[in-house]
Amino acid sequence: MLSIRELSVITNKDEALIKDVSFDLHRKELIFLTGKSGCGKSTILKAIMGSLDDNLKVYSTKFQVDDIDVNKLNNRRKRRLYGKNIGLIPQNPMNVFDPRKSIRSQILESYKVSLDINKKQSLILAKDMLSSVNLKEVNIILDSLPHELSGGMLQRVIIAILIGIKPDYILADEPVSALDEDNKNEIIKLLLSLKTQSGLLITTHNTKFLSCNNDKTLIMKNGKIIKEEKRNNLKPVYSDINSIDDNYCNEGDFKWTVYK
Ligand SMILES: Nc1ncnc2c1ncn2[C@@H]1O[C@H](COP(=O)(O)OP(=O)(O)OP(=O)(O)O)[C@@H](O)[C@H]1O
């Protein structure tokens, strides 16, 4: 279980972007983290991944991944944790690739850090995994530089890497928001299939995600989790959660369907 307690993120001007956020993510569980733009979803994911901007400080009373107390790890062990135990699917896949290196070298490097297999085995695994996410002409993809592939293809490459590594927990930050409609549907399907191997925490405004059968939805406002819905009994009537009435979260008994 990935367990977070009282997570706060504070700016160097003493402004709290995240306030006392707590949740658990179990293996093979699917959680959506949603709320208006700017409420702090990405900041929570960055805090977990240790990739916050330099002007931000993070505090938590507990950050545990199974039996590992992450707050006590040194940097080397943290790097391994992020390759092997926790994976990230970013909003903009271009940001995670080195623009100067081929897709082949970057996939092989990821497998080297996280898996105890040699280069030949890594290449076989890479080809298998790229095929499994419906990428054709695998050899051409492997020889490509990141900018030669579309956003949808790069997002598939990241998913292929993660299916190969099988991290116990995967965080995805608005993973389809930068994609066109055709790619969105295909990537949503692939992402949801990751639930058979990993715990998944997905931040999203996307109603296609929100209407699928997840285990829990965490709803945020102003840096706090204000509502937790078990299973998905939310029936979204919005194309975008940003259109929700500003007062909704002041009501004690929040019902998604009330708002339109
Ligand atoms: N380094 C930073 N310094 C100061 N404020 C920041 C910093 N990074 C983010 N913020 C602010 O923190 C708040 C939360 O931002 P965040 O990107 O986490 O929101 P979000 O819910 O993910 O939004 P979106 O849905 O648009 O991606 C915003 O008001 C943002 O301007």
UniProtKB/TrEMBL annotation:
Provide a Gene Ontology MF annotation, just one. Answer: ATP binding
Q: Where is the signal peptide?
A: none
Q: Which Gene3D superfamilies match?
A: P-loop containing nucleotide triphosphate hydrolases (3.40.50.300)
A single GO cellular-component term on record: plasma membrane
Cell location:
Cell membrane
A Pfam family matched in the record: ABC_tran
Going by the entry's taxonomy, the superkingdom of the source organism is recorded as Bacteria
Which InterPro entries does the record match to this protein?
AAA+_ATPase, ABC_Ni/Peptide_Import, ABC_transporter-like_ATP-bd, ABC_transporter-like_CS, P-loop_NTPase
**Does Hydrolase count among this protein's keywords?**
no
Q: Which UniProt keywords apply?
A: ATP-binding, Cell membrane, Membrane, Nucleotide-binding, Transport
Major localization class: membrane
Describe its membrane topology: Peripheral membrane protein
ABC transporter domain residues are 2-247
Family annotation (PANTHER family):
DIPEPTIDE TRANSPORT ATP-BINDING PROTEIN DPPD, OLIGOPEPTIDE TRANSPORT ATP-BINDING PROTEIN APPD
| Similarity remark | Belongs to the ABC transporter superfamily.
This chain's protein is named: ABC transporter ATP-binding protein
Q: Which organism is it from?
A: Vallitalea guaymasensis
